[in-house]
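Table 4 source record.
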Amino acid sequence: MQPLLDIENLHIAYGSVEAIQDVSLSLNQGEIVTVLGANGAGKSTLLRAISGITPVKSGNITFEETALNTLPADEIVRRGISHAPEGRRVFATLTVEENLALGAYTHKKEKERVQKTRQRVLQLFPILVKRRKQLAGTLSGGEQQMLAMGRALMSEPRLLLLDEPSLGLSPMYVKLIFSIIREINSQGVAVLLVEQNARKALAVANRGYVLETGAMMTSGPAADLRQDQKVQEAYLGGAAVKKRA
């Protein structure tokens, strides 16, 4: 079976500094795949390359058998990939409603389609119904994260890139965000998840990859990574993690 997303021998450099070195990974339709690693490992750079924000030095990024390397970012969104970036990056001076509308810019002329998509998004994030006229900058961190994810879903992606969705959130919101990630996936959207909370990420993911200073350290089924001694020591506090029932 051809992967939904296939990355082969990827190299990305910032000047003389190679941020990503010979990285290969794949993601199949319907999967949640997580990318783990310390700060500076290249995780966010990887997502920005997939979404066309960061140029690729060499290697191939293929989505549904279409090469993405030279496509502009807006065309990549039209192809079916959407990105909720680290730090949420909501438009603080616009309302929740306006932020969501911007997420649907690739089909903004199809008003009925946009309205139906908005309804589905608001069913996932009901708090945003109450906040729809509120400026995004006045929302709590957890609400802004939901808005960032909702905005990304407005383009109706088949692949959602999530960069550190639980960063800086309270335990209550972390639990809620991961529950929503599962729900999004159950609706047929594949998810590539970069996440500093390795325990939560491996609990929700089918498979995982571990980056170390821009290079691939290891990969495998999430259950196997939870039992890997090096992964435990580096990202799980050194304690064994029980397999999910």
